[in-house]
Amino acid sequence: MFRVPIDFYDKLKNGENPVPYLLLVNSLGVRYFSIKTLSGFFDIEPYLANGQYLADGSIYAGTPSLVNTIERSARLLSISGLDKSLSRDFTALSFTPEKSQQSISFDLDNNDHHFSTLVATEPFLKQEVQLRLGFESLPFSNHIVFFKGRVNNLRLERNKLTIKAVEG
User: Fold this and answer.
1) What is the DSSP letter of 5?
2) Is residue 1 part of a domain?
3) For residues 70 and 46, is the Cβ–Cβ distance under 8 A?
4) How far apart are CA 157 and CA 121, in angstroms?
5) What DSSP state is assigned to residue 26?
């Protein structure tokens, strides 16, 4: 069984489709990637990695906030490999998880060679990745985590970056 907030449920019941987006979380902050430019919650200005120090000597990227966003862009090309589905059975929203560990693959647009330089300077392997579903008009707290795992493989090609992650 998969529980969703009532606002999310109402939008599904009205026939609206949630927008999938990807979160890459590492020690520098959070990067959001979606299939289209998002507004609403995502209008928060991204913070730059400014290398400031905390009193205990640790370094953080940007100003502390609920969401330490360092990038948000419409670079998500495709999602594949997940064996979960969101049903519109209005008696209950459910998904059917397999007994095995889930894995997922994301393709991100690299036509401008954005990731070609980023992969060399920022940790991606073993970092947290989330696939979330949400509506632009609903707050972040009403979005659902559809997949949560760790990056276990990267493949950088000329026009795309493929990220593979396993649940856990």
Assistant:
1) -
2) no
3) yes
4) 17
5) E
- Which domain does 44 fall in, by range? 6-167
Tokens at 106, concatenated = 């994301």
**CA-CA distance, 34 to 53, in Å (whole number)?**
31
The pLDDT tens digits of the residues spanning 33-59 come to: 998 877 655 544 444 455 555 555 555
**CA 75 from chain center: how many Å?**
11
Transcribe 1-44 into DSSP letters: -----HHHHHHHHTT--PEEEEEEEETTEEEEEESS---GGGGS
- Give the total number of structural domains in the chain: 1
Report the alpha-carbon distance of residue 156 to residue 164 in Å, rounded: 12
Q: Residue 80, SS3?
A: strand
- Give the whole-angstrom CA distance, residue 135 versus residue 27: 27
- Partners of 78 in the beta sheet? 107
Answer whether 74's CB lies under 8 Å from 37's CB: yes
Confidence category of residue 141, pLDDT binned at 50, 70, 90: confident
Residue 143 lies in a domain: yes
Phi-psi region for residue 59, left (φ > 0), alpha (ψ -120 to 50) or beta? beta
